Amino acid sequence: MVFLTRRATFSASHYYWNESWSEEQNHQVFGRCANRNGHGHNYTLEVTVAGEPDPVTGFVVDLKGLKDIMEREVLSGFDHRHLNLEVPEFAAGGMIPTTENIARAAWNRLERAVNTVGGARLSAIRVYETPEIFAEYRGGL
Amino acid sequence: MVFLTRRATFSASHYYWNESWSEEQNHQVFGRCANRNGHGHNYTLEVTVAGEPDPVTGFVVDLKGLKDIMEREVLSGFDHRHLNLEVPEFAAGGMIPTTENIARAAWNRLERAVNTVGGARLSAIRVYETPEIFAEYRGGL
Amino acid sequence: MVFLTRRATFSASHYYWNESWSEEQNHQVFGRCANRNGHGHNYTLEVTVAGEPDPVTGFVVDLKGLKDIMEREVLSGFDHRHLNLEVPEFAAGGMIPTTENIARAAWNRLERAVNTVGGARLSAIRVYETPEIFAEYRGGL
Amino acid sequence: MVFLTRRATFSASHYYWNESWSEEQNHQVFGRCANRNGHGHNYTLEVTVAGEPDPVTGFVVDLKGLKDIMEREVLSGFDHRHLNLEVPEFAAGGMIPTTENIARAAWNRLERAVNTVGGARLSAIRVYETPEIFAEYRGGL
Amino acid sequence: MVFLTRRATFSASHYYWNESWSEEQNHQVFGRCANRNGHGHNYTLEVTVAGEPDPVTGFVVDLKGLKDIMEREVLSGFDHRHLNLEVPEFAAGGMIPTTENIARAAWNRLERAVNTVGGARLSAIRVYETPEIFAEYRGGL
Amino acid sequence: MVFLTRRATFSASHYYWNESWSEEQNHQVFGRCANRNGHGHNYTLEVTVAGEPDPVTGFVVDLKGLKDIMEREVLSGFDHRHLNLEVPEFAAGGMIPTTENIARAAWNRLERAVNTVGGARLSAIRVYETPEIFAEYRGGL
Q: CA 20 to 30 Å from A140, out of C50, C106, C140, F78?
């Protein structure tokens, strides 16, 4: 089994806020991240697929096809966006856009598209908020 | 002459918008950066000071003192902020928060504080918006 | 299951020396690392915890709490220290401070503190001695 | 169990071409990588071995020994070479030198040599073609 | 004066060979780089322009315009190419494609196009062959 | 004029201590760096030479020759050493081994050797103590 990873970046704004809490409680738990004007990051997205290299092409997954899927399913919707205001998973009472939840959202957007391309299966999604903090969502492979 | 550089990071939101232009013109010139919900970056700030190392300490500039100045003059005001809404240089008809203008604003905030510490002089300010794009403002040294 | 990793750095000195060996044998096995004046590294410590994101906060682990634990349990004792002389696990006949053993020591210091914070569990500790050499200690998750 | 990884780099040329396809088909599937003059990369090779640290040395594997094996088995044959023309696994009807297949070839070259050194076992081989694309071949550990 | 830098990458093959020398002399001076099958690198190109930020846009140079110029003048001709065989400056008795000469060639290709865009002037070209070796060609600014 | 830079790394220990000060004063000015057991870093050394590329080789400076000079004049004496105890410039009442002074010492060791190799001249020495702190000593070019 070989695991092939492709990395991409996107720049987005977010803030942390739980609507069911008081303003005070939000600031206490989320600190500076509770500033509702938003702040932002250069996120790095790593998509890992697993499979056997195709003996005809040598690829676990077609790299250009994987890039197109990442662009269509995730980057076009996340890049240069305010996650809390413009991305459905996080808007209007959705999940708080933590690094953990961004990784889950990306997995949900990518799983079907990646798994229908060929023999390879989506294996893991890693999202870096900064070089110091990253979250990884792993499937069964 | 020795040049000593200290690097720090901050995460902020911004957008590009010229109030005297039509919406159409803003989108034409600034593209996705004209999204007024804002998007964000992990900015890197590099502050370079120039001078002769002090024969007693071996320092061109006291590193802890420089860190405190950077924190007080720039990072406390820029980090986890929306530049267009919360930072005076860019708010309410101020400069557009391009990488070039962020470097200029940081220079103006740091110049007096750095130059009054000791023999060293502020020499350059470099700001990275992403690893692919950075601006440098250089003084006379 | 989501894995959340936080990275930090510390600068420390060490040397490799087995007290039960002759000087010649130490130099033969450990080469330049057997210089008992010590040499040093900028170590990078990556702490990975695993769990389900809390539906209320979106966090697998409170990031500020994790940072405090890393600071209290590991960094305050390792940073700007000579590992062979000042850190109990490696001093006075303790383990040789190889990258492998530093990872084990960090695991032992962090396991209880991390696992008592909430639902998340310590999953892995990775220590980079240089960008070219790193060791990872993995728990059961 | 501790996993120790050593990283090295090599610079090589390659192209993608399936001899059983027409020129048109090769260009359609492989795009610019089908240019038979070749193009090249600074590859990064990461070799991970797994085991218990030796209580006498603190090492999972002797680092100098591992470096020598990597040099002898892989780097001396891959570095400053044209993979399609000079490396047996990829030459004369062999595998297409994709990142996936380079990782497999490196595993096959390293497995016996690493596993006969001591108690440690080869665990994974990761090959970066660029910082954005990498493949990992994992053994059973 | 503000200096704005944009970074891009390209992957290419090359070798070092002086046609007027014997094979022996080429191998003696150029070592492994004299392998005429070619080897390759992930090159990084940094283009620096200097000027005053436009008060209307905040830009020293239009970033999208600079990207297009870099793509058209340099990257489209260098990326996924064999420099000795396919790039006029280095082919058929041209310059040896050292990092120094690649920087000069990129300067010559970019100078006119950059300087006719607006008030900004091309200031420097930096080319990284690897993270350890880079060359910079500087103009008068 | 083209500037060619070669980068290398070394791992060393140091501490900051002014013999003419009291213990209290040393701790006040140098903080944790005054721990006389020493601590260490992975230093990065960048050596920049300036000149015209030789029309016969395309080199500003022979890269292998430059590497040998760096190894002989600096790395062999600094790597895996305790700067305060084993390096003459810093031992026994010499300079305090700050990043600034390490850059100066490296310049003094390299200047003659580099300038006698050929037409190129030593232009700058940059030393990184960590990725966040670096010093540069510049000559006249």
A: C106
Between CA C102 and CA A26 the distance in angstroms is 37
* Number of domains forming the structure of chain B: 1
Is the confidence at residue D140, as pLDDT, over 60?
A: yes
CA–CA separation, A86 vs A77, rounded Å?
A: 8
Which CATH number characterizes residue B55's domain? 3.30.479.10
Measured distance CA(C12)–CA(C77) in Å, rounded: 10
Q: How much is the average pLDDT of A9-25?
A: 97
What is the distance between the alpha carbons of residues B80 and D112, in angstroms, rounded to a whole number?
52
Do B18 and E56 meet the contact criterion of CB atoms below 8 Å apart? Answer: yes
Tell me, what's the ipTM? Answer: 0.95
Predicted confidence at residue F21, as pLDDT, reads 96
Short-list F42, A134, A3, D7, CA closest to C134: D7
User: If you average pLDDT over every residue of chain D, what do you get?
Assistant: 95
Q: Which chains touch B (3 or more CB pairs under 8 A)?
A: A, E, F
pLDDT higher than threshold 90 for residue C139:
no
Quote the pLDDT of residue A75. 98
Inform me whether the C-beta atom of residue B5 falls under 8 Å from chain F C-beta atoms. yes
Residue E16 structural domain: 2-137
Phi/psi region, residue E12 (left: phi>0; alpha: psi -120 to 50; beta: rest), is: beta
Euclidean distance between CA atoms A94 and A16, whole angstroms: 12
Distance, in Å, from the CA atom of E97 to the CA atom of D40, rounded to the nearest integer, reads 14
Task: Please report, to the nearest 10 degrees, the dihedral formed by the alpha carbons of residues A57, A58, A59, A65 taken in order.
Answer: -30
Residue C28 phi, psi dihedral angles, 5° rounding: -65, -45
Judged against a pLDDT cut of 70, whether residue D23 lies above it is answered with yes
How far is the alpha carbon of E74 from chain F, nearest alpha carbon, in Å? 19
Return d(Cα C79, Cα C81) in angstroms, integer. 5
Place of tokens 């905030």: B109
Report whether B13 contacts A13 (CB < 8 A): yes
Q: Would the CB atoms of C104 and D57 count as touching at under 8 Å?
A: no
What residue spans of D75-137 are helical by DSSP H? 76-78, 83-86, 99-115
Q: First-to-last CA distance in chain C?
A: 10
Instruction: Measure the CA–CA gap between B95 and E41, rounded to whole angstroms.
Output: 41
Q: Which of 59-78 (E) contact B at CB < 8 A?
A: 59-60, 62-64
State pLDDT tens for residues E25-78.
999 999 999 999 999 999 999 999 999 999 999 999 999 999 999 999 999 999
